Amino acid sequence: xxxxxxxxxxxxxxxxxxxxxxxxxxxxxxxxxxxxxxxxxxxxxxxxxxxxxxxxxxxxxxxxxxxxxxxxxxxxxxxxxxxxxxxxxxxxxxxxxxxxxxxxxxxxxxx
Length: 111
Known about the structure:
By secondary structure, the protein is mainly alpha-helical. It has one domain (2-104). Helix content is 59%, strand content 7%. The protein contains six helices and two strands, in the order βαβααααα. The protein has helices at residues 7-15, 38-55, 59-62, 65-83, 86-92, 97-104; strands at 2-5, 27-30. Strands 1-2 form a two-stranded antiparallel ribbon. Mean pLDDT is 75; it is low at 6-23.
């Protein structure tokens, strides 16, 4: 399993419009099996979104839905970028061809 901690990304979040982000690092645990097929990539992406939502402040803290959404989006983008898996990146960008090709194609160790 891989575990990612992102202390440097917190600084980036704090300097942007997401100034309400908690300065603690966030953690995501994933494994090679999370890239096996479309549904496992979708589940990993949902885990990334949940991690981002847990990291970012709530609306009741900020009173700004735009700030909350910007923070979540920024954390999700950062996690996807740091994981650097083409299938996950394609999924995050809305590429639906992964659903067809990903199910029929075996997982490449380099993906």
